[in-house]
Input
Amino acid sequence: MPDAEGLKEAKQFYTDVPQKTEGFFLKGSNAYDWGMKNRLARIFNPETGRTVMLAFDHGYFQGPTTGLERIDISIMPLVPYADTLMLTRGILRTIIPPSVTKPIVVRASGGSSILKELSNEEIAVDIEDAIRLNVCAMAVQVFIGGEFEKQSIINMTRMVDLGTRYGIPTLAVTAVGKQMARDARYFRLATRICAELGAHYIKTYYVEDGFETVTAACPVPIVIAGGKKIPELDALKMAYNAVQQGASGVDMGRNIFQSEAPVAMIQAVRAVVHENETPEKAYELYQTLKNEMGK
Ligand code: 5RP
Output
């Protein structure tokens, strides 16, 4: 019990100073509840409004992907440079020490493999387990135009409903079928559908032509996946163009962990995303760091 006697009387209420009411920094996110915003503010840097998510969830449908054969060896050195980690709960529990305090985006859909139709997914993580794992968002694949389009959309809306109950955002991941054109028109359609149906942010692919129309037409933040491994300078150009054209960061996997020098590459990506560094300057940084590390 605090001592009730001898209390200091002079109280300062600053009656002439109005209490500040801050807007929330992230696109389209001002109307959410405190916990949802707090999780988003851990994923996206409030200073830059952007994020470097490191994606290494590929094993959930394609097994031990090149560069992810031993996540303890290849990914752990990258963790200090990532803003957010995107992975499966299996890898989280088995490889990532609980002392790692980076925000976690857990892969929450699954049920198909590269041997079968990929769009045939269900929700594959219970919301209670996501809470137990203290995740900052749940990622669900959405296959617009795919064979199981409706099922994948409903997976996402179910996740949005469950997550909203507990203040956990849903990341909709737009997956493009082999037969579909990867163009701005398709990504406007896919990202807008996900946002209209409640996704809190969306992962999509960068396209050379008209990417700014994809970000403009989407009322929530967009992050880009890196896609297949390309030369480092090209990957940095892609990340640069994406953020300059309205993306709120990257959710990059193979172009980091399959790089010749992954620790150097993730730092170069950070420079592009958070410091608006040009791809050429970021590539110089990549080479300097790579040489310093002797690889
Ligand atoms: C797998 C994913 C990956 O997280 C996503 O594709 C990002 O990784 P990459 O940069 O290697 O494309 O969603 O389905």
Notes: Residues 55, 57-58, 86, 173, 225-227, 251-255 surround ribulose-5-phosphate (CB under 6 Å).
